[in-house]
Amino acid sequence: MQLSENMQGLFAILFLCFVTSPCLCARTLTTQANPTFNILNFGAKGNGQDDDSQAFLKAWGAVCNATQGIPTLFIPKGKTFMLQPLVFQGPCKPSTINFKIEGTITAPRSVNAWKWPDSHRDSWIQFSYINGLSITGRSLIDGQGAPWWDCFAKSRCERPMALSFHSCENLQLSGVTQINSPGGHVKVYASNGTRISDMHLVSPKDSPNTDGLHISASSNVAVENSTTEVGDDCIAILGGTSFVNISGIYCGPGHGISIGSLGGNGVHATVEEIHVKNCTFTRSSSGARIKTREGGSGYVRKITYEDIVLVEVQSPILIVQNYGSLLPIDAGQAVKVSDITYRNFRGTASFDSAIQLICDKVIGCSNVVLDQIQITSSVPGKKTNATCLNAHGTSSSSNVPQIPCLLK
Ligand SMILES: *[C@@H]1O[C@H](CO)[C@@H](O)[C@H](O)[C@H]1NC(C)=O
Ligand SMILES: *[C@@H]1O[C@H](CO)[C@@H](O)[C@H](O)[C@H]1NC(C)=O
Ligand SMILES: *[C@@H]1O[C@H](CO)[C@@H](O)[C@H](O)[C@H]1NC(C)=O
Ligand SMILES: *[C@@H]1O[C@H](CO)[C@@H](O)[C@H](O)[C@H]1NC(C)=O
Ligand SMILES: *[C@@H]1O[C@H](CO)[C@@H](O)[C@H](O)[C@H]1NC(C)=O
Ligand SMILES: *[C@@H]1O[C@H](CO)[C@@H](O)[C@H](O)[C@H]1NC(C)=O
User: Which of 14, 17, 63, 216 is least surrounded by Cβ atoms within 10 Å, i.e. has the fewest?
Assistant: First the structure.
């Protein structure tokens, strides 16, 4: 039997270290015991045409049931794997699992080619009930969204999310480029302890409702150093979410980094401790946006947006407590909005009304603080201004535009 060069090297090291240092050797062996499961060894073709779903699920079974070390599911580069909708289901035996994606993953190319399992239709690739999952690699995941957008335009057909994470504790997601999602790109739901970095989410500007990242019912989330160029919210934070840090995000085109909309259909929704820092918005329709719907209850509180750069953003700062409502704003039932700070915003707005704080007459918005705001108009000769309705808080006198409408 021919040993590969690697194997020969490994044996040489093992032999040497047994002779010289049995302790160190035991450690080397433990490291070597972290098994790698290459998707090609499970029957994946990687030709971009054949359905590789079963191979992925088989490999997942092996990884999820691995009893030794930290297993890695490896998707090699230079190949394109076509996957039908599928679920990587936990709980798994290992407390940490690596998913290393170097290759390309693609969805079926037409709406009719998607084969749905009976269990769900809401996402293409779903990860459920997995602890310590770490997805890394320089990969491309292509949701083949274009036929879905047509289908949506013609017959409002319901579109799946591309990637969704459901009840995943200590999830890490980094280095993935995701393009052309049918619906939203990435959804994190009911998950505690998520770290997302170096993601690049891309869809055309006019693709309908293709949110970048959706976070709901989740706590302790960090999103760093990522770019989202999508048709809708770059990041949307929804009900039940708390303790989220977002920094180093380039957003645009898109609708900004949004909280909400919350409280639709009279539901109780809570969002708190969301901190957005060092982000750049370029030609997005909004920047820092909070949307709640009339008739809901609950709160949005302890939110900061700071060190924000704006390039021709339509409405950089926006609170709307009656989003999507045509009723007069005095229903007296709304999601409470309080302790909202905007600090150090610099750049340009393409609409005059750069700051809009539109709140319910009875509930109002309280302790809205604006400090070190310098937002000028990107249209020569125009000036930016601020609009308020029932908004209470403080604004520094040096802010541009001035915000005299803010009530003490
Ligand atoms: C792990 O093994 C068990 C028992 O063989 C099996 O029922 C389960 O489906 C496996 N897990 C996965 C994710 O395949
Ligand atoms: C989230 O994880 C942290 C750290 O492990 C833990 O202290 C906290 O209780 C968890 N929160 C929830 C809601 O599970
Ligand atoms: C968010 O930032 C705060 C302050 O820097 C830090 O204490 C906290 O641990 C961070 N949370 C996460 C989930 O990274
Ligand atoms: C994000 O970028 C900052 C600044 O370059 C760096 O300090 C930080 O470590 C990065 N975060 C991650 C998770 O890579
Ligand atoms: C802000 O984010 C950008 C983009 O990720 C990064 O290059 C820069 O180092 C960050 N600045 C700070 C002060 O963290
Ligand atoms: C803001 O500017 C626009 C255009 O100049 C004007 O129509 C509007 O009334 C202004 N709003 C306020 C609150 O000054």
Answer: 14
Residue 12 binned pLDDT confidence (cut-offs 50, 70, 90):
very low
278: Cβ below 6 Å to ligand 5?
yes
Q: Which residues pair with 244 in a beta bridge?
A: 221, 274
Residue 145 dihedral angles phi and psi, to the nearest 5°: -75, -25
pLDDT digits (tens, 9 = 90+) for 221-244: 999 999 999 978 999 999 999 999
Task: Return the residue matching tokens 């770019």.
Answer: 227
Query: Is the model's pLDDT at 28 over the cut of 90?
Result: no
109, 146 Cβ separation under 8 angstroms: no
Is 215 exposed, middle or buried, given 0-12, 13-18 or 19+ CB atoms closer than 10 A?
A: buried
What is the C-alpha to C-alpha distance for residues 187 and 164, in angstroms, rounded to an integer?
5
Catalytic one among 166, 185, 214, 255? 255
Q: Looking at residues 9-29, what average pLDDT do you find?
A: 44
Pairwise CA distance, residues 149 & 91, whole Å: 34
Q: Domain residues of the chain, as ranges? A: 111-406
CB within 8 Å of 392: residues ≥ 6 apart? 364, 365, 366, 367, 368, 406, 407, 408
Q: Does residue 284 contact residue 251 with C-beta atoms inside 8 Å?
A: yes
Q: Is the pLDDT of residue 128 over 70?
A: yes
Q: What is the largest CA-CA distance in the chain?
A: 83
For domain 111-406, the CATH architecture is: 3 Solenoid (2.160)
Q: For residue 85, what is the DSSP state?
A: S
pLDDT of 296-341, one tens digit each? Answer: 899 999 999 999 999 999 999 999 998 766 555 566 688 999 999 9
Question: What does pTM read for this prediction?
Answer: 0.91
214 is known as an active-site residue: no
**What is the CA(302)–ligand 3 centre distance, in A?**
14
Distance CA 184, CA 231 (A): 9
User: Is the Cβ–Cβ distance between 81 and 46 less than 8 Å?
Assistant: yes
Q: How far is the CA of 34 from the centre of ligand 5 (A)?
A: 34
